[in-house]
Write a structure and sequence with these properties.
The structure holds two protein chains of two kinds. By secondary structure, chain A is an alpha/beta fold. Chain A contains twelve helices and 21 strands. The radius of gyration of chain B is 11 Å and the shape is globular. Classes of the chains: A alpha/beta, B alpha+beta.
């Protein structure tokens, strides 16, 4: 019997497991294959909802499902905390089990690390957990005017488009309420442009200028003073705020760090094409956990899951691997309530987004629902790539 | 430049893409002493544009670029 073990029940891990369960159904039923997903949480969260909850566009019940219910019945789900991953002995230890594998998929994700910036956690709000998204919703609703600062307080972070989308949504939200003129909206970003990809950054800068969102670039947050409501940069600037929405830097999960599987930044060194953990042909890494030079976003995990599930299937059936990850990512950028554009790019081809339009926004809202019935179910991983 | 070689802190960011090399430089400058020279090895073309801009804004001294095969050595001195 071949054992496929998936550590992490987020987007990437769930798609890999479900897609393999579809493809290997007969072998699973016969007991020739075993697929196990292990995660400390029983819940699966659709994290793109975090951005939309503060503006009332999505709600808790649209963002959460039971991981057990989301997985195919043939998959074993263990709600256990993983303590150690021993790739040399093909062994994963949890609080209560020692799990052996033939194929291991690490989909252990990323998490906010507030400790990197003094004052960050108490100085403002963020939307990187469900709880924080709801706290921010309350703060956004109560905000009556003054300086609203949206700042990126460290790179890398999950979903590179999210902070600028937040700024656009705030502009749109307060405009619809008729109070936009009472709010000064500032966007602070570490790079010399408001987004990593230069041609997209040009379009974003123009949109921000048009909407009177002030950009302060090359602003690397050094510390936040919650009492004085001030953000100080490494470059020597200090900016005052009335309400701050701060994107924390992220780090990889503790278990891959303590297992010695990461670089100094906490990310898993991963072959950019095969998605093997470097040095281990039986271990794959996908999604936010990797050191790949692509966005830490569910869409990247989806495309990577297609590659990993296909190549594991190939291996089990005696074929050579038939897919390579080409760096593909697809991201929506919501530019207002009711308006969005879309980025589709890979290692070799930068994105060429269309002008913001309603159709892209509508597609994003539809996709939010489709995630549960198509994407996470592994029915069309990577949109069939 | 030869007498400075011993003091140079090298960040090998080859293979890392924007914003990796710049972010590694910022992190290293933060942890360095005034007067230290930091040299970023970068194969990302954007570094040649972004690093001087950041250095100027942050008030440090940009010392120049040495082109090597497949990558650049970009030098900065921490001045404050």
């Amino acid at each position: 019997m071949k054992r496929i073990l998936v550590v992490g029940g987020g987007t990437g891990g769930t798609i890999v497991a479900n897609n393999l369960a579809h493809r290997l159904h007969e072998k699973l039923v016969k007991g020739e294959i075993e697929i196990t997903v292990v995660d400390s949480s029983s819940l699966h969260v659709y994290q793109p909802a975090y951005l939309l909850i503060p503006f009332g566009i999505m709600h808790r019940n649209e963002a959460i499902r039971s991981e057990r219910d989301l997985l195919a019945e043939t998959i074993k789900f263990r709600q256990e905390r993983v303590n150690k991953i021993d790739v040399n002995n093909r062994l994963v230890k949890t609080d209560s089990s020692s799990l052996q594998y033939d194929f291991l998929v690490l989909a252990t994700g990323a998490q906010p690390d507030y400790s990197q910036v003094p004052g960050l956690e108490k100085g403002g709000y963020d939307f990187y957990t469900l709880e924080n998204a709801y706290k921010l919703r309350e703060a956004i609703g109560k905000f009556e005017g003054g300086r609203l600062v949206v700042a990126v307080a460290g790179i890398p972070f999950k979903c590179p488009t999210a902070p600028m989308e937040f700024a656009f949504l705030a502009d749109s939200y307060y405009s619809k309420l008729g109070v936009r003129d009472k709010i000064e909206l500032d966007y602070l970003y570490p790079l010399p442009r408001p987004f990593t990809i230069p041609n997209v950054a040009e379009q974003v800068q123009k949109l921000m200028d048009d909407r009177k969102i002030k950009t302060d670039l090359l602003f690397n947050v050094e510390s936040v003073n919650p009492e004085k409501k001030e953000i100080t940069s490494i470059e020597g600037e200090t900016i005052k705020y009335d309400l701050a929405v701060l994107t924390p830097p992220h780090t990889g999960s503790e278990v891959v760090r303590v297992s010695g599987l990461t670089d100094k930044g906490g990310w898993i060194p991963t072959d950019r094409y095969t998605l093997h953990v470097k040095g281990y042909d039986d271990v794959y890494a996908i999604g936010d956990a990797t050191d790949l030079p692509v966005s830490k976003a569910g869409s990247a995990a989806d495309f990577q899951a297609a590659v990993v599930s296909t190549n594991i299937w190939d291996n089990i059936n005696g074929f050579p691997p038939s897919l390579r990850y080409d760096g593909r990512v697809m991201c929506f950028i919501i530019t207002a309530i009711g308006e969005a554009t879309i980025l589709l790019f890979d290692y070799e081809h930068p994105p060429s987004p269309p002008p913001p339009n309603f159709a892209c926004y509508w597609y994003k809202l539809v996709y939010n629902r489709m995630y549960w019935t198509v994407t996470a179910k592994g029915l069309l991983p990577g949109f069939g790539v | 430049m030869s007498h400075e070689e011993e003091k140079v802190k090298v960040i090998d960011a080859r293979g890392s893409y924007c914003p990796g090399p710049l972010m590694e430089l910022i992190r290293t400058v933060k942890q360095s002493n005034i007067g230290d020279i930091i040299e970023v090895w970068s194969s990302d073309e954007g570094s040649q544009r972004d690093i001087p801009k950041w250095t100027e804004k942050a008030g440090h001294e940009f010392l120049g670029v040495i082109h090597e095969k497949g990558y650049d050595r970009i030098r900065v001195r921490k001045t404050r």
